[in-house]
Amino acid sequence: MSNLEENKMGRMPVGRLLITMSLPMMVSMLIQALYNIVDSMFVAQINEQALTALGLAFPVQNLMIGVATGTGVGMNALLSKSLGEKDRKMVDRSASNGVALAVLASFAFVLFGIFGSRFFFSVQTDNEQIIEYGTQYLTIVTCGAPFLYIQIIFERLMQATGKTVYSMYTQGLGAIINIIFDPIFIFLFGWDVIGAALATVLGQAISCVVGIILNQSFNPEARFTMKDFRFYGAIVRRIYAVGIPSMIMVGIGSVMNFMLNNMLIKFFSETAAAVLGAYYKVQSFAFMPLFGMNNGLIPIIAYNYGAGKRSRIIKCIKLAVTFATGIMLVAIAVFWLMPSILLDLFNASEQMKLIGIPAFRTISLSYVFAGFCIAMGSVFQAFGKGMLSMLVSIRRQLVVLVPSAYLLALIFRDNINMFWLSFPIAEIMSMTVTALCFVYIYKKIIKHIPDRK
Question: Could you tell me the pTM of the whole model?
Fold first, then answer.
């Protein structure tokens, strides 16, 4: 054990701590949401086929981010717990192994982008224009995966020690670069979707460099170093014990999105798939702040778990669920009151609005239950029980959402509005299972944690 001083996560009042830790991450996640939507907003000015191509590319982009953040979540849980235990050696080893794992994982997406992009779009549509746009965009974006992965993992190092404000700087800078260069590359240079992809990668590359500099300069508790580096099997297993379930959850979401796109094109139209793509871009403004709060929540719970401070953990969980529910209620109001305005961001045609307005309103009904489920998922991860989150996600998306969506599409071929009901149906089931899982966690872990001051 080393003489590490008590981190603020073990001493600051819980309410102020959660806000202090989460607010910069919520802002940075809102910036990330803007980052995600900017490409689609500008590409929609080209034509609807280009917008549809980006919507079909979304599952792969989502999976890219999911694998990176899954590695980061696993590293964070172990690193923050080690900080709480004052174990300096484990902190350093967790950081170095987490960074190395993320870099290695990024190259799998580089290979997929180069060799698999065209096939990926060909199995979804026979529209040659969409296939060409999608292949160009996805190839470039996946080749930029190393920049994205290094950026995300160094942001997670700063989050693990409570320095979340620096993550806001790195993401904010990347988003600003993307917003500036998107119209320049797309319209001024005439590069269309290639320009959108290059602007995205440029923003990620600059964020990557800034993230490394900020962590190495201002985060002495979790500095990455290659000195005496080696992989430790026990550490890798502990990182992935939390990280792999998180990755699988995102992977399931990508598979779900892929299958929904195919259903919409098969049963309805490519315009319906464009609506779903637009929805996923806009919904990030609702969910990204919630994920930002969760990124602040995980290290707080993990640290206090390691430090043996039960009352702080319980109070933090209650506050997180309250905040999450509030965020979701605001999101529902926006989707119900402003669906036409949201669709106008994507230069929506009248047909796209005819499909999109009821879609946005119906899907947002699921948010009533989603806030609780997402907050609880992070609680499970903080205690190293990411498998529970994964099982809930599998049931919600593959066991309930996809089959119910297929049945509704099959039965109501002439009424696409029924298709969107699969989302709230799945979320109701998810909330029930999540509540049961939390009862299990409380009885097995939380109630047995000592309550040191």
Answer: 0.76
